[in-house]
Amino acid sequence: MSAKIIDGKKVAQLTRDEVKKDVNDWVESGNRAPFLQVVLVGNNPASDVYVGAKTRACKEVGIETDTMRLPDTISAKELEATIQELNNDDSVDGILVQLPLPNHLSSHNVIESIDYRKDVDGFHPMNVGRLTVGQPSFRSCTPAGIIELFKHYSIPTKGKHAVVVGASNIVGRPISILLNKEKGEEGKATTTVCHKFTKDLTQHTISADILIVAAGQPNLIKGEMVKEGVVVVDVGINRVADETKEKGYSLVGDCDFESVKEKASWITPVPGGVGPMTVAMLMKNTLLAAKKSIYPQ
Fold it and tell me: Where is the Tetrahydrofolate dehydrogenase/cyclohydrolase NAD(P)-binding domain (predicted)?
């Protein structure tokens, strides 16, 4: 048995096409184009790559965007004052502060300083809290993208045992909430969350019908750790040294793809799986912010 591939590039393109049409309809109805303000602090090369991908996606779907580049010496007070200005600017629909931040800045404080109605990343405690109790909110883009993949490929979650490896506020916690939802079309899975303190990880992963891995450890999950027919979503993206590559490294996930795919029914590749969906869902959230459809004014 070899797994079928969950093609994140393909589904992300379909999602962007849908957003592009909706943006066009929105503008043709007499509204201005949605506007996303990106705030980039410091000179993290990986952050530059991510921001570039987001900027290109905005251009493709008709969302206007600007990247505010701030020095890594900026103080917490100065950064939060800048964000407050953006909160008060009616021409700004969405605010995205690219993570990670320099060590002297608290990501929690910075995220909380963003107006939750403009928090298109879905990280603000107001959005996370509303998600937890099943109220409308901006959903974290990566978990929302995973749910979108399940919908596209008609992969059922109801009654399944979903195991999430990784308990971050960005992926692990919110996807466990979405999978565990009782109301609506999605969710209804029994959900187990594992993390670095979990004893005997394999006893949990091998019982999973759906396995979401977001641990940030290359090749953590091996083929012998999963059961036949499991659906595997690999959120990890790790650089590992590879002298055969021009750049000197390869990108790999948190799963050992070659061994896991022999037992899985469906699997996401790395790259080309979850990553493109994260950016596509950001576009969707920015349009929703412009329309004030989640938090009407």
Answer: 140-293
Cite the DSSP H helix spans in 133-212.
141-152, 172-180, 201-205
- CATH of residue 41's domain is 3.40.50.10860
pLDDT tens-digit map of 122-174:
999 999 999 999 999 999 999 999 999 999 999 999 999 999 999 999 999 99
Closest CA to 155 of 206, 204, 211, 202: 211
Instruction: Give the tens place of pLDDT for each residue, 19-65.
Output: 999 999 999 999 999 999 999 999 988 899 999 999 999 999 999 99
Looking at residue 2, its pLDDT comes to 82
Q: What is the C-alpha to C-alpha distance for residues 157 and 179, in angstroms, rounded to an integer? A: 7
- In this structure, the answer to whether residues 90 and 186 fall within a common structural domain is no
Residues in the annotated binding site = 166-168, 237
Cβ–Cβ under 8 Å, residues 278 and 49: no
Catalytic residue list: 54, 98, 121
* CA 159/CA 184 separation, integer angstroms: 14
Residue 232, classed as helix, strand or coil, is strand
For residue 208, the model assigns a pLDDT of: 98
Q: Give me the residues paired with residue 245 across strands.
A: none
Nearest in space to 82 (alpha carbons), one of 69, 64, 93: 69
Position 39, amino acid = V
Query: Which residues are known binding-site members for NADP(+)?
Result: 166-168, 237
Same domain, 146 and 111: no
Q: Coil, strand, or helix at residue 266? A: strand
pLDDT tens track for 88-105:
999 999 999 999 999 999
* Domain around 227: 141-275
Number of domains in the chain: 2
